[in-house]
C-alpha cells in the first residue's frame, strides 16, 4: 500500500491562524481591563443577568438628575445599592465575590454601566 500525502491548503492555515489571533486579542483585551459587559439605557430598567468571577468592578455614567443602581444577586436575595445620586456623573465600585447578578436601574436620563473583571483569570 502506497503512503499518501495529505496537504492542507493555505486557506485552512490562514483560517486557523486568524482564529488563534482573535483568541489572543480577546485575552489581551480582557487582561487589559476592557469592558466585558456593557448595559445602556434611558430611564428605569432591569438589566439582563450576567455572570462574573471573583474580583470584578462596575462603573457607571449618567446624564440624568436621578440615578439609583442596585445590584441583585441570583444566589442571595440581599440587594446592594451601588449608586444613589442626584446629579449627572459617574463612578465605580469593586466587588470581591463573583456569581450571577443583574442590576435594577432607577433613572430619569440616559445611563451606561460597564462590568469588567479586575484581573484576568
Please report the first level of CATH classification, the CATH class of one domain.
Mainly Beta
* Rg, nearest Å: 21 Å
The percentage helix is: 10-25%
Total E-strand runs: 9
- Helical stretch count? 1
Largest sheet: 5 strands, antiparallel
Low confidence ranges: 11-31
Description:
By secondary structure, the protein is of the alpha+beta class. It has a domain of 82 residues: Jelly Rolls (Sandwich), CATH 2.60.120. Helix content is 18%, strand content 45%. It is built from one helix and nine strands. Strands 2, 3, 5, 6 and 8 form a five-stranded antiparallel β-sheet that branches. It has a four-stranded antiparallel β-sheet with strand order 1-9-4-7, with no helix packed on it. The longest helix is centred in the first third of the chain and has 22 residues.
Short description:
The chain has 121 residues and is of the alpha+beta class. It has 1 helix and 9 strands, in the order αβββββββββ.
Provide tags for this entry.
Jelly Rolls, alpha+beta, 121 residues, five-stranded antiparallel sheet, four-stranded antiparallel sheet, 45% strand, 9 strands, single chain
Layout of helices and strands, plus pairs?
Layout: H1 10-31, E1 37-42, E2 45-46, E3 50-52, E4 56-62, E5 67-73, E6 80-85, E7 90-95, E8 99-107, E9 110-117
Antiparallel strand pairs: 1-9, 2-8, 3-8, 4-7, 4-9, 5-6, 5-8
Amino acid at each position: 500500500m502506497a503512503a499518501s500525502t495529505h496537504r492542507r491548503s493555505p486557506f485552512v492555515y490562514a483560517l486557523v491562524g486568524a482564529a488563534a489571533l482573535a483568541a489572543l486579542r480577546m485575552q489581551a483585551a480582557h487582561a487589559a481591563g476592557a469592558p466585558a459587559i456593557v448595559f445602556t439605557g434611558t430611564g428605569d430598567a432591569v438589566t439582563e443577568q450576567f455572570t462574573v468571577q471573583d474580583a470584578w468592578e462596575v462603573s457607571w455614567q449618567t446624564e440624568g438628575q436621578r440615578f439609583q443602581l442596585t445590584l441583585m444577586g441570583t444566589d442571595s436575595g440581599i440587594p446592594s445599592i451601588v449608586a444613589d445620586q442626584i446629579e449627572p456623573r459617574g463612578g465605580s465600585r469593586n466587588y470581591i465575590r463573583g456569581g450571577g447578578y443583574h442590576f435594577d436601574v432607577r433613572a430619569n436620563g440616559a445611563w451606561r454601566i460597564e462590568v469588567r473583571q479586575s484581573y484576568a483569570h
